[in-house]
Every structure is written in C-alpha cells, then in structure tokens.
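task queued by scheduler; priority normal; single chain, no ligands, no partner chains; default sampling; output format set to structure tokens
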Amino acid sequence: MSISSLSSSTAFNFDGVVSGLQTGSIISKLMQLEQGPLNQLNAQQAKVTSRDKAYQAVAAKATSLQSAVQALLLQSAVNGKSATSSAVGTATATANANAVNGSFIVNVTTLATATAATSSGSLGTPANMAPGTLLTGAGLALAPTPGTFTINGQSVTLAASDTWSSLQTKISTATAGAVTLNLGTNGVSLTSATPVQIGAATDTSNVLNALALSGAAQTGTGPYTLASNQLLGEAVVTKSLSTAGLNVAGGIGASGTFSINGVAINWTNGDSVNAVLSRINSSSAGVTASYDPTKDKVTLTNTSTGAQNISLSDTSGNFLQAMHLIGAPQTYGAPAAYTITQNGVTTATQYSNTNTVTNALPGVNLTLSAAGSSATITVAQDTSTAMNNVNTFVSQFNSLVDLIDADTKYDPNTKTASVLTGDPTIAGIADRLRSMATAQAIVPTGAAYNSLGSIGITTGAFGAAAGSTNHLSVDSTKLTAALQSNPQAVFQVLSGMTATTSLSSDPTNPWISTIQGQPATNVQSGTYAVTYNPGTGISSVFTPTSGGAQAPVKGTITAGGSNGGVILGMTLNARSPLPAAAGTDSITYSVTSLGVMQSLNDYLTKLTGTGGVFRTEQSQAQQSTNQISNQISNQNAVLAQKQTALQAQFTQMEVALAKLNSQGGSLLSSLGISTNNGSSSSGA
C-alpha cells in the first residue's frame, strides 16, 4: 500500500494503511458513478461532430454536382462541332456551336507575311582580296595561323608572309594544277575537275576555317566548286561591340538606348551583337532579330503579319546605325488572300492580316498554311463532347443522392439508424433534386423536347421495381440521335433560358427613364420594386411570382445617371431631374423558357452559398461544439473537486483510525495487556 500527498497542507491519502480498505479503488469507482453527465456531454459532442462531418460531405458532393451542371450551361458543352480538313497542309479549321454543319472549300491564294527590315550594308569591313595582300593583314574575321593544311591529300604550308597570290601558287603546285584558288569580293572558292578533298587530322593551320571552307557544301558535277559558306571579312558577333570589327563611322559608342516599335532597349559596348539581339527578342518590341553570317546583316521581322511598319530610332548612342538599320528599306508584309466555295458559289477574294482567320464563316475559324492550293473543310456535330458532359452530370447526381440515401437509411432488421436518419433537411435535398431532374423544362410551344427524359436522361423505365429508379441513367442511343437531329432543342431543354422585362413607372413620382439588360442568375419570374428616396438612395426588392419578397438591395444614383448594382445584370438609367419625393417604379421579369440545368444551378447555388443549408449547419455545429466544450470543462472541474474532497475524507478517516488504534494500544498497555499475541499477564 502507498501513502500519497494530496496537498501541501495537511491532507494525506493513506490507502488502507490502517483500515485495510482499498480507498484508491473505492474513490475511482465513486468517481465513475459521478461521470455520467460528463459521458453524456462527450457523446453529445461526438454526435454533433459526426452530423457536421456528414453534412459537409454532402456539401462537397453538391459542389461537384454544380460544377457538372454549370459545364452544361455552355453552348460549347452541348452543341459542340468538329471541323476536319481534306488537306491539313493547306488549311485547318475549328468550329463552335454557331457553325452550320456541312462542307465548303477554302482556296488559299497567298499567305500573310510580316514586315522585315534588313541592314542596308555589311556590319563588318569586307576582307581585302587584292592578290598582293598578306593574309594576316587581309582583315579576315578569323585570323589565319601559319602551319600546314591539306588539299586532296597534299600538304600545303602557310607562312606569315604569304599573300593571296602566293597562296594560290602553293595550292596549284601542291595539287599539280588540279585545284585552283579563286578570289571573290569577300570570299574564296576552290575549283577542280574532280571533287576536292580538304583537311586532315595532322593539319596545324586554321586557314581552311579562316577561309570558311571547312564544312562548306561542294557544288557542281565537274568542274566542282567549294566556296566560302560565309563572308571572310565580317563582324564577329560573339565578341564585344568594341572589338567586333563593326564598320561604323566614328566607331561604336560606349553605351546607349534604342527604340523598336516604341520599346526602349539599353546596351553597352561590352555587349556582343548576339547579346543585344537576344535582348531584342526577349523584349515586348514585337519583332524577331536575327543575324545572317552569309550576308553579315541583321534582320528585324515583325512577329505580327500584315503591312505594319517597324519604327526604329537611336535614342542615344549608335547601335542601330552600326547595324545599318537606320533608314534601311523595309519589305512590308502582306495580308493572306483566300476565297471560299460553298454550294458551287465562290466568294470574292477575302483578306486577313494573319494566317488565322476568325469567323471565316459564322462559328468557323481557319488556319491557312500553304498558298496556291485548296482544302475541303467539313463541319459536323460533335456528339462525344455532349455525351461526356451529360455522363459526368449523371455520375455526380447519382453520387450525391447515393450519399444522402446512405446517410439517412434505417435498417429495420437491426434497428440501426444512420448518421442523418430522420433529418428532414437532408432527405428533402434528395427529394428536391429528383423532382427537378424529372420535371418538364419551360420550352417554346412546339419544341422537339421538353424534359430530360425526352432526350434519354431518365430514372428508369415505367413500372420498374421500387428502389431501382433512384439513379439517373443515360440512353446514349436516344441522346445521340437527339443531338444529331436537333442540337439546339437539346440545349434548350438542358440549359436554355430566355426572359423579358418591362418597366412600369410610379404614377406620381416616376424616376427611371430606361432600363437595359436582364437580371443575371435569376431563374424566377417576378417583380422588382425599385424605390428612389431623395437623400437615401435607391433600393430594389424582388418578389417572385410564387414566393415572398426577398431582402432589399441598396445603391445610389444621380439625376441622369445610371446604376448597375441593385439588379445584377441590369442597368437603370435615371431621369433628370429626379423627383423631389419618393417614388417606386416596377420592373416585371418574365422567364419565357428555362432549361433543367438552369433550375438545378440556381437551387445548388442557394444550397451551398452563404445562408444556405450547409453553411448554416456548419455555423450552428461550431456554436454547439463550443458550448459543449465549455460544459465539459466545467464538469471536469466539478469532478476534480469531488475527487479531491473524497480523497481528503478518506485520508481523514485513516488518520482518525490511526489515532484510535494508538489510543487503544496505550490503554491496553497501561492495563498490562500485551497486544503482540492477544494474551495478558500480571506481575507478582
């Protein structure tokens, strides 16, 4: 047995030391009896938490269903079109819901081109090709190094003192006259009756690279010609501008800024030509800059096609001047030209600044790829997109009602309820969804379809077994046929919506002059009472045809001004002057057609939004949880006090018993009675 301290004052817990009682166990069992209210609170809190978790799981399913519903509100999701081309190399096409099914021929005359500006002269200084010029002083972009090089297997030695003329002689001599070195204006060529072989692994001179012959293409069939594949004297675009050998009067400046199409670009002479061109390409100037080593020139090409000028100026410094672009002639772009032949009738020539033509025919966009040819474009109904979207909706719908059914079911055999059994709100959601999915849409008189069932979306065949029609199902054959036959009528029953509005002025103090637009997101017919009150502004109260008035929406307006906030989607234009006293004008809103998805979307918005069932329940659950947590905390404090009191009482009992035992022992001792073995003796 143990003795444990209960407080720092006088209380000690002697666990049966004197009494022999298991006081710790007795206190524990007494406290278990006292914990009944606490256990009830914990169970109550667990129930609130479980219910809230179930509600929010249903809310998540409802949100997923609404996403599927909203996808079907788009024309492109129901009335999709495909466009195929008989010659994708000539033209391709895309089509939207506005396109008419059928075929037409697009005849591409020319493609759109972009404006380009090219340097008016070489960036660098041409090489000196005079026969008596030393190669080392000819101004080659890559300075030749003395050493050996190989032509047709014969080794030729280049000396620092060689001129163009002496090099010609050395090559002719080494090849026994078979190969001739010809001098051009800024390049060279080798000619021979047979193909020329140049270079060897043992070469020590770079002259073949310096003459731009290595890697050059050999042309001809005899004689054969191997010519420099770039200019020998040109700018070195990889070196800094100050050492690139630019041919500009006065040399390149230290730094500066130039403008292309109004976009400023900075540079310093430590940049290379390539670095500045990259800077141009990464800017928003709308051009692509490139360097052509075969011409030693820079070209700027507009990224947009069509006849658009490229504006160029050196704001400071002389970079564009050094590139010979200032004043350089521009080759202006041209529009694409095409015709369309439909039912044997060809249009006049059509033009487009780009090769992508928007609405070449209503709902059809073309991409032109090759001139001088034709392609047949076929537009057809894309039923697969609609089928996929409908199947997604049905899947999400069934998933939501399945969850609600599982959460509200009751098993009579085991007499077991589910987490939301008997909850009328949740059960009502499933009932409302099923009712809306099977209700008729509001469609024009004589419409081909008037319900989801009429296009193949049903809850099962008539007379099906009970419980087997909880799910929506899709008759793909029936839906596909409807989409192919009358896609607009399918969209009308799914998601169509039309409405009318009319203004009735206050007979005494009218204040609205005109209205524009239609109420957005409102799927109910009714009346807007819009009141103007001098000094306080305006307010709008909507009262649906079947239902009570909704909360007012307030705003402001000035004489002759407008307001687009009190009725979302509509603009109210005020008279001038406004009346001196309050007046209420009425706007009658009549929904003339309404698809099933429109109604479902409106219901789900109210269900999941602010003030809806799920957010209200979540708020209430949080409040209940907080209240119960406080009660649990208070109950724990009460129990702790009771336990402390019990421990103190039992401790006092043990202390009292110890005192009694002590007093009894003293009494027996005084009487000469031994307490060791229970016997007594007297002295003589």
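post-processing summary
- Residues 1-14, 678-684 have pLDDT under 50 and may be disordered.
- The radius of gyration is 47 Å.
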